[in-house]
Amino acid sequence: MSPMQTPSLPTRLLAEFLGTFVLVFGGCGSAVFAASVLTDDSINMGIGFLGVALAFGLTVLVMAYAVGHISGGHFNPAVTLGAVIAGRAEWKDVIPYWVSQIIGATVAGAILLAIATGKDGFDPVASGFATNGYAERSPDGYSLAAVLIAEIVLTAIFLYVILGATDRRAPAGFAPIAIGLALTLIHLVSIPISNTSVNPARSLGVAWFAGPDALIQVWAFVLAPLIGAAIAGFTYKMLFPDPEAAEPLIGKA
Hints:
By secondary structure, the chain is an all-alpha fold.
């Protein structure tokens, strides 16, 4: 896509809304509805951690192919920040992208809640509602320090993959596959640690509906991914210098 054909900002924001909506609806929805499904004989027919990890990865993969050529396929405020710092997007788009992503995630969270409450006895607070957490809210009891380290490091890795896969020197057309598989791998590592964020919009989209304890802890899942993304954005060009100016992410997903 040539610079003259760059979609308008409203079109790009709609793409970011849709992509983030599908990410949260598919990823968090798999955790809420399908991670553990017990039969009458108490046999778990659910998809487990592996299935949830794949759900998150697949949502990014399919939506990057679907609308990545329109908006860059960020679907994540941390990705937007890292892309801007790395010179792949413009600072003026940061706040509009963030707002669109958070709204998309929140609408997805609200629809998930509407569906989940259709089953008697469902409680978004007691169930956790696919929220992220540390200490007593960590799936396996990891401390705040451990969660912050994991989220910073894994978000940085995610951004390195995104920036590398969308580099003009990389093979064209394969970026969504690498990015989706990277997000799957990240979830396989960190679901037991924090329920995996690496995406402030994903965290906020469900935290609104899961009670005050979830909201009290959500700051960690806004701050840590942004730090990790900033680290990757600042260092990518130093680690892998390109003699020519990098192209924007728009049209490269």
